[in-house]
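Lab meeting, action items carried over

1. Structure of the two-component assembly. Owner: GW. Status: complete.
Input record:
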Amino acid sequence: MTNREKLKALLIDILLLEDSEFRFDLMRKDIETWDSLAIVAIGVGIQETFGYHMTPKEAVALKGVPDIINTLESKGISFDE
Amino acid sequence: MNKPEVWALEKLMKADLGKSAIWIRPRWRRKVEEKLSPPIIEDSEEPPRDLDTLVVVGGGILIDRAKVWRKENAPATKLIVVPSIWGSGAENSPIAILNVADKKVIYMGSEFLPDVRVSWDELAKELPAFLVKNACGDVWAHALEGFLSPVAGDAVRDELALVVKSLESLPVRNDPAWFEISARACAGQAKSSVGLVHGIAHTLEGAMKRKYAGEYVGHAQLCAAYLWPVFSLNMQLSPKVDTLFEQYGLDKPKIVGVLKGFFDGHTYDLGLPILQENWQSVLRDASTRTNCALIRPAHISYFASRKFE
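Predicted assembly:
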């Protein structure tokens, strides 16, 4: 499974989305279920899936899926697959 | 926020309560009549609104009812609570939770905090074993889920680690020491969060009441029964459990042994089909979403296959 596939599966589960609803350019404001508790779950899920412990500041600052990818890429986790 | 003043039973017996009444579960009538003189009202009735003092003797459900009753009917009435069992933390908390039409309604605010909490250790000695076991399981669930919570700060985690260490050496039995440790566990988890054990209990309580009209399965019973299966899943999903246990010097084999002792196959089996039917609701529950490990749709199979046994 590629990192893009792992991230997609993770966010579909956390945000309770249908497969067809997911896009890599999704923004937080467009998803009702991306609330404050989802921020906690995304932090936990990123750590379990990619081994990176997001700080609370980083998790709260995420505005969408592209921000998650940028944050992880800045820590050396590649999404160029 | 202030905490209720703590009185010994002797102080309550001697206190001038003005116009007062004692609201009780019927099980405590004899005991209460031996020690206290104000008129008794059983929990099937409502207290009069012109009291100076209302004394409540019972568990979390009745204490929470009294907190809401006072707010809505008699805000000037002094509220003295005498918890008959530990676990809920209702006696020490500005939160009240009522079951209304099988839904949980949450009230929060300093006006819900009791004025006085009375320690009546003798009540604990009369509790039946199954209630004791469930109440102890509830305390463990508060302490562990709060300790492992992803939103627990360092200070809260330090305090809850001390609570867990105390629990390691406190046997599951009728012991008044559980009242104080329960209060500390509740205070700690209120500053962090709880997790999947509570997500399951919150979802199943109402659903099981609708399905099994003749068999009441309460919050503490569900927390106790599902504590070990959930904890076992958490250990599989996240290295965080082992890491934090090691970091705080907690005795994992001992804890695992205690948690296994809370497992109750009968309650688990009653709940399992309802858990499967309501898994989406469990996933959406606020407690589940702050579990120490990420809980995903596929994880229902873990419970169905009983991999924790």
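2. GW to write a short summary for the group page. Key points so far: The CA atoms of residues 10 and 43 of chain A lie 11 Å apart. Chain A touches chain B at residues 10, 13-14, 16, 37-38, 40-41, 43-45, 47-48 (CB under 8 Å).
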